[in-house]
Structure formats: structure tokens, C-alpha cells
User: Which sequence fits this backbone?
């Protein structure tokens, strides 16, 4: 699995995947937490597959919404925090952990929701202006029978 020797490689992969944080970008998930994180099978043994469809848009609608998705199999790391798509955002991001845990506890197969980034818009505006990028999500969960 993961070890201290492959942290730089893992970090680059997670950063490209939009999961890990950079020192100034997000507080949600760091490489250390991901290295010790459990797999989906260990965390949610009843879940066969989990898919998240996401749409992220700027608060002023100045750019087209970003559409992307994540897929989690039993071997995937059970990490549901994503960095903000505002490249200048400081200490922002989106954490869907609680929604997913609640949905699985209630055996739901589909949930939708919305999150707003509470990071700072950029370095210059720290303590002055929040980022407010918006994440709309739809989560599909398949269980073992």
C-alpha cells in the first residue's frame, strides 16, 4: 500500500486528481491523512460502488461551470474532500464526508446537495473576501445484496 518512501509520488498524483491540498490551497485533506486513510472496503464494507458527479461554478458566473466526477470502488481510498477549483483560493475546498456517511448509514442510493467554498478568494483578500465557489453534487451508491 502506501509508505513514507512513496509520499512524493502519491502527493503529485493526489494533487493532479484534485484531492490533496497544497500548503496554501485547502485545509481539508493532506497527504499524511491520505496515507493513513482506509479503503472503501474497510470503511464501508456494504458499499459496492460510489460515484460522485460534481458541478463547480464561480460565484459571479464569469466562467462556465466545471463538470467532473469521481468513482470509488472497494479498493479506493475513502476520502471525500475536494479542493476548490478557484486556483487562487486560500484554505478552501469541499468536504462531503458527512453526507456520504449519513447516506450509507440510512442505506440511501442517491443524494444531492450543494456546498459553498468558505476559503478566501485569493492571498490579497484573506480576511476580506470569501471565495464562494459553489459545488453542486449528486452521489450514487450501490450496495452489495
Assistant:
Amino acid at each position: 500500500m502506501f509508505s513514507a518512501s512513496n509520499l512524493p509520488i502519491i502527493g503529485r498524483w493526489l494533487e493532479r486528481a484534485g484531492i490533496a491540498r497544497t500548503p496554501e490551497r485547502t485545509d481539508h485533506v493532506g497527504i499524511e491523512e491520505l496515507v493513513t486513510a482506509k479503503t472503501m472496503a474497510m470503511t464501508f464494507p456494504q458499499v459496492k460502488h460510489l460515484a460522485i458527479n460534481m458541478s463547480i461554478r464561480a460565484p459571479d458566473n464569469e466562467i462556465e461551470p466545471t463538470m467532473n466526477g469521481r468513482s470509488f470502488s472497494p479498493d479506493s481510498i475513502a476520502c471525500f474532500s475536494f479542493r476548490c477549483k478557484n486556483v487562487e483560493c486560500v484554505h478552501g475546498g469541499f468536504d462531503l464526508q458527512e453526507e456520504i456517511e449519513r447516506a450509507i448509514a440510512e442505506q440511501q442510493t442517491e443524494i444531492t446537495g450543494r456546498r459553498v467554498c468558505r476559503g478566501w478568494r485569493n492571498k490579497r483578500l484573506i480576511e476580506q473576501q470569501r471565495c464562494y465557489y459553489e459545488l453542486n453534487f449528486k452521489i450514487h451508491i450501490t450496495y452489495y445484496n
